[in-house]
Design brief:
about 210 residues; OB fold (Dihydrolipoamide Acetyltransferase, E2P); two-stranded antiparallel ribbon
Length: about 210
């Protein structure tokens, strides 16, 4: 499927927005609708404009979503899914759950497992990390956004280093509401963020995330 930023039409009717923008809160701002072309001779110019726009926006929107089924839950922010008979490791975009061996770590995994185990999901890839995991926004078939649900439930932090998309502003508000309500990990008045824990635990000074 082509990049939804650049939909070129020769019809004079307004171009309908790609369905992806209405579904994903992490897609960034929706692109401007291109004006109807006066003739086919202008198409190369519009194509060049689209390429320039993509270059200026940098990462652009995530790729189109694809369906999968949960295979297993590794920890509070990592799952394995089945796609076309193959197991794919998914790292939830924009959040960071406690490590399994830090306080609330196992509870965070149970929180994610209770939400997604044995369910069908839609995977909206954002990028791939250095460990070959697909960093993604994950959505249940009923529309529940798994990433933000975990933050709202107090089962994960917003990951400030990597959560840079438009949706992250809302997620930070959800995190603050969970903290004020002492939900989940926020029952501890001074919880240690996992990105700090990974560098202070004497048993394993640097861990992969």
């Amino acid at each position: 499927m082509g990049n939804p930023l650049c939909v070129v039409s020769t019809r004079r009717a307004p171009v309908a927005p790609h369905r992806h923008w209405s579904q994903s809160p992490c897609a960034g701002p929706a692109p401007p609708r291109p004006a109807p072309s006066a003739s086919r001779a202008r198409l190369p110019h519009l194509a060049a404009w689209c390429l320039l726009l993509v270059a200026c926006l940098g990462a652009g929107p995530p790729a189109s979503a694809w369906p999968a089924r949960i295979s297993s839950v590794s920890d509070g922010d990592t799952i394995k899914v089945l796609r076309d008979g193959s197991v794919v490791t998914i790292r939830l975009y924009g959040i960071d759950a406690p490590e399994l061996d830090q306080p609330f770590g196992k509870a965070a995994r149970r929180c994610l497992a209770a939400l997604v185990s044995h369910k069908s999901v839609d995977i909206e890839p954002v990028t791939a990390d250095s460990y070959q995991r697909i960093v993604s926004v994950v959505r249940l078939t009923d529309g529940t956004l798994v990433n933000s649900h975990l933050v709202e439930a107090g089962c994960a932090w917003v990951y400030p280093r990597y959560c840079r998309r438009k949706c992250c502003l809302e997620w930070r508000e959800l995190e603050e509401a969970a903290r004020r309500a002492s939900r989940g990990l926020w029952k501890d008045p001074h919880p240690v963020p996992p990105w700090k824990w990974r560098h202070t635990d004497p048993h394993e000074p640097v861990r992969r995330r």
